[in-house]
Amino acid sequence: MITYLIRRLLWLVPVLVGVTFLVFLTMYLAPGDPVKIMLGPRATKETIERVRGELGLDRALPVQYFSWISRIMTGDWGRSIQLRRRVFPLVTSRFTSTALLGFSALLLASLGGIGAGIAAVFKRQTGWDSLFTFLAIVGFSIPVFWLGLILQLVFGVRLGWLPTSGIESSVGGGGVGDMLVHLILPVLALSVEPLALIARMSRSSMLEVIQEDYIKAARSKGLTETMVLLKHALRNAFVPILTVIGMQLGFVFAGSVFVEAIFSWPGIGNLIVNGILARDFPIVQGSILLIALSYVLINLIVDMSYAYVNPSLRYD
Amino acid sequence: MKFNFERQTDPDHPYYDTGVFGYADFTLGMIDTIEVVDDYTLVLELKYTFAPFLRNMAMLAAALVSPESLEEYGADIVVHPVGTGPFQFREWEPGVRVVLDRNLTYWGEPATLDTLIFRPIINPQSRLAALETGEVGFIVNPPPEDVERLRNDPDFDLVAKLGQHTWWIVLNCQMPPFDNKLVRQAVHYAVDKKAIVDSILRNTGEVAVNPLPTNVWSYTEDVKIYDYNPQKARDLLAQAGYPNGFEVEFWVPETGSGMQQPVEMATAIQAYLAAVGVTANIQTWEWGTYLDKVFGPPAEELPAMHEMSWIMDNGDPDNFLYILLSGEQWPLDGFNESFYKNEEVDRLLCEARVELDADKRLPLYVEAQKLICEDSPWIWVDHAYETFVMKTGIQGFVFQPTQGILRFERVTFE
Q1: Which domains does chain A possess?
Q2: Model ipTM over 0.90
Q3: Option in A86, A160, A261 nearest B122 (CB)
Q4: Where are the alpha helices (DSSP H) in A152-265?
Q5: Which among A44, A47, A84 has the least Cβ separation from residue B75?
Q6: CB spacing of A50 vs B97 below 8 angstroms
Q7: Is A79 on the interface with B (CB under 8 A)?
Q8: pLDDT per position as a tens digit, B345-387
């Protein structure tokens, strides 16, 4: 187990280098000049050249990349070209907001999805099951940005129950309660699609498991259907469900770009989009690095938890 | 002021590396020497006569920051700005808010508001939702399709003010077919600007009859006016030797500062041109890429048509007519992207920018506008309104069209 963990952690290094280099290359090859965008249309040729030199953007790509990497190692993430602020605090604070949004959505999607999947198995071969399948298809077909606007309109503007934007109230805001209230609509918008997928996966995985002989054995012992499903079937059906949950993490991060834009959630998705539009290399690089790191780590945690769910899986 | 100006223009200044100054040369580049006479007197010697200079002194690049704050924080002055305005900075949390408090030591009449909070809400629908739920009291640029409804809603006041902006199609005057004035006039007549303003922009702008915005000094309507007239367009095309029209490339950005609804507007213009036999092939670009593509290359490498807009810097007609239309201002020296050149226009514009007497400048600009409108180097389409919506009861808000500055220091609410 420990050697496996160490091996996986060592793999982190080439993965992160690969990801950041790809991003670096893409940004570098994309047309559009960060210096011109930063200085605006009225800057003279001389000023543009001078600033390009100051930012080191006139050097060769590998030189720029290695100088960036070595500064990252020493904790210097650079300064945003556009916002003129230090990258590290900016990126980490935005990342925290996105992580809060993303994990809340994933938690809701997992609990709701597994719950709905189990419920569908209980009611299998009834009208409820068909309704479930229908809702699940609707759920993962709804575009996030549309759902976001509708939620905003219904619960914010029409009913007036919930705030529609930001992470806290403009006046008298702050505090955990205020933030949770602001979190509700974005989390709902973001969780519907993964919830539908997880629910479908839970249902089909459970249906497969209950054909197994040990389920028949459990039934023949006289256990109730509830006991059979929750105690014997669910745990064995869990590995594929867990895989889907892990994979949804990527969706949640990608989807957060839309949700953040609609709900003005100060997350990293927004930061990256603006960073790309402004060719703000340090911001984009720093953000992607952080996301890649978290993605790899979380998938590692998911892999490790297989062993917990299914003790017959062992890593050496 | 000396410190602030030199910090931006002198690369050897100790605080030059604490910022980026994209507007410094443009705003202050003509200053030769700065002499401090006493606490309240400064003598600026210019390198050449430049009539609009005093207006430049009201541009943002001429705004002052505190030298002490700069000394203390260096490049981090962006999070510790100290200025001289009616409000003072409290905090800036990127993506969340900027908070300003009343400046208790302001040199003028103190602001009426204790605190002013700006929040970034990028999506126009979400911005409106935040206003309607009461999360904010004031928004800029509501979605155009909601403007009519908001205008009639007793809960809100909608204010639409003309900025100093023009949206146009650049016609490449150095390359066929638009090197021919008749062809340029023809396509200008072919476009129904009013329909574009009514149905695409939902009246968030007004039809342009002149490249100069209507609220800029020297503006005249005593020029050749291109009202929608497809028959006249066809006649002019035939007269120019294109009875069956022609095919051109037409570049369009997907979004962009001042570009309003670039793709929808381009599509409409494409249809209007098709109606008179001109095929315009639209190619769209991401804004950053687009700017790189259209600013810089010589006329031969540019398409026959592309979209552009300009928001005025200093409120002087020089800042539109000379910079955008003088033959001396071809890129990269300036922003005359249609590579338009008319010797007489050049003479008038140059004379006007060194003439200090406004009464003498006026006829020069009027004459230049007449010649430019006759030559039709662009298809000028509209001047945008800046639209603001606020809760009923909020009063005293002032919009300053030059540089689009929002002033809240006299705002009161019930």
Answers
A1: 2-73 (no CATH), 92-309 (1.10.3720.10)
A2: no
A3: A261
A4: 176-209, 213-220, 225-227, 234-263
A5: A84
A6: no
A7: yes
A8: 999 999 999 999 999 999 999 999 999 999 999 999 999 999 9
